[in-house]
Specification:
single chain, mainly alpha, two-stranded antiparallel sheet
Length: about 140
């Protein structure tokens, strides 16, 4: 009887753990970053975290166009976090960079969170919700209304 009780107790502990870990698995995603040499000198010489977000912006425009920025850059014409990095990306491949994020911690923090959540395999709507929930305390969203 003691043995049966011990087995039942063990099963009651192990079963929920197995169910939770089975449901919590996510596919880790590799991030695509542009080569540092694709960046202008001022971005190449920026601190590593800032340089990496610019590299991410070049290669992942849709990820950053999916989230707002809340640093107050809307009056600059920015309508999403991507605009904080890239002013224009014409089809000829001559990207015109925006230096705004070089000096804006909120822009960089938002992009670093997008990168982290992308690495974790989160879907774009989840990432967007997370950014909106985390960053609207800092200022108004620049998403078009």
């Amino acid at each position: 009887m003691k043995r049966l009780f011990a087995l039942l107790m063990l099963a009651s502990v192990i079963a929920p753990v197995l169910m939770v870990t089975g449901c919590a698995t996510t596919t880790k995603q590799e991030l695509h970053l542009a080569p540092v040499s694709d960046l202008p000198p001022e971005m190449q010489n920026a601190p590593q975290n800032v340089r990496e977000v610019y590299q991410f912006a070049v290669m992942n425009p849709d990820a950053l166009k999916n989230v707002p920025c809340t640093c107050g850059c809307g009056p600059l014409g920015h309508t999403n976090n991507y605009d904080c990095y890239i002013q224009d990306a014409p089809n000829n491949g001559k990207i015109v960079f925006d230096s705004h994020a070089l000096g804006c911690k909120i822009c960089v923090d938002i992009t670093q969170d997008v990168m982290k959540l992308t690495r974790e395999g989160r879907a774009p709507p989840q990432i967007q919700r997370y950014i909106i929930n985390q960053y609207t305390q800092f200022g108004p969203s620049n998403f078009p209304k």
